[in-house]
TrEMBL record:
SUPFAM superfamilies, per the entry: PLC-like phosphodiesterases
Name the record gives this protein: Glycerophosphodiester phosphodiesterase
Lineage: Bacteria, Bacillati, Bacillota, Bacilli, Bacillales
Pfam families documented for this protein: GDPD (PF03009)
Top-level taxon: Bacteria
Alphabetized InterPro entries for the sequence: GP_PDE_dom, PLC-like_Pdiesterase_TIM-brl
Domain GP-PDE: 6-241
Length: 242
């Protein structure tokens, strides 16, 4: 039996070639053949779901400070592109709603919750997805597994994924021990091999390892039969899958 071909999932869009977590980065990922995108979210002071990896604005914008201490109207004025390349000057920090607007329904969106903000983040994300009727092809993931279990209890329609960078022993066994309906495992890519993937598949779990970029790593994961690969270079993975 031949293994299914993995989904191409653009990490923070196409973070290797465009400023991460900007609309330009997501658009580039789609242009390069990504079938899914991964992004990170934080909550602003006024409760907007802000697409940014770090809890502060310092590294990826021309501003500074904590996202939770800033209102979105101020965050929106910042340049989130020129730090990466002058060509991207004018890119801004988008909201999750804006990303939903530009990403077609057939593309998987992996929303990574970086921080729960005392439960306010889960509520905000669920409220947005409910208002858009967009639970199909969205998976919410986090390193905070308790947060994911709370979210799933609150909204059974939401698909959840477990992120981890530690060796958990049996990946599928760990997921089973949580006694919840989990869609996908998102291990740091070196942690997972063909046997783990097979065990996960038999348990009805998808495998979306992160963040593999070199040809050798991408090829290893393709051969292991993973369900999808989260990569900064969607075009590189697309070329390997041709
Ligand atoms: O979601 C996979 C991966 O993005 C998790 O690590 O630090 O890149 O958000 P990080
Ligand atoms: Ca992430």
């Amino acid at each position: 039996m031949s293994l299914p071909r993995p989904l191409i999932i653009g990490h923070r869009g196409a973070a290797g070639e465009a400023p991460e977590n900007t609309l330009a980065s997501f658009e580039l990922a789609l242009k390069q053949g990504a079938e899914g995108i991964e992004l990170d979210v934080h909550l602003s002071k006024d409760g907007e779901i802000v697409v940014c990896h770090d809890p502060t604005l310092d590294r990826t914008t021309n501003g500074s400070g904590w996202i939770f201490e800033a209102v979105y109207a101020d965050i929106r004025k910042l340049d989130a592109g020129s730090w990466f390349d002058e060509r991207y000057t004018g890119q801004y920090v988008p909201t999750l709603g804006e990303v939903l607007d530009i990403v077609p329904d057939h593309i998987l969106i992996n929303v990574e919750i970086k921080h729960s903000y005392e439960g306010r983040m889960e509520k905000a994300v669920l409220e947005l997805l409910r208002s858009r009727g967009r639970f199909h092809n969205v998976v919410i993931s986090s390193f905070d597994h308790k947060c994911m279990l709370r979210l799933k209890r609150e909204e059974p329609l939401a698909a959840i994924g477990l992120l981890y960078a530690a060796n958990l022993g049996s990946h599928a066994g760990y997921a089973r021990s949580l006694n919840a309906d989990i869609l996908s495992l998102h291990p740091q890519h070196q942690l997972i091999g063909a046997d783990d993937v097979a065990e996960a598949r038999a348990a009805g779990l998808r495998t979306y390892p992160y963040t593999a970029n070199s040809e050798a790593d991408l090829k290893r994961l393709i051969d292991a039969g993973v369900s999808g690969i989260i990569t900064d270079y969607p075009a590189r993975l697309a070329a390997l899958l041709k």
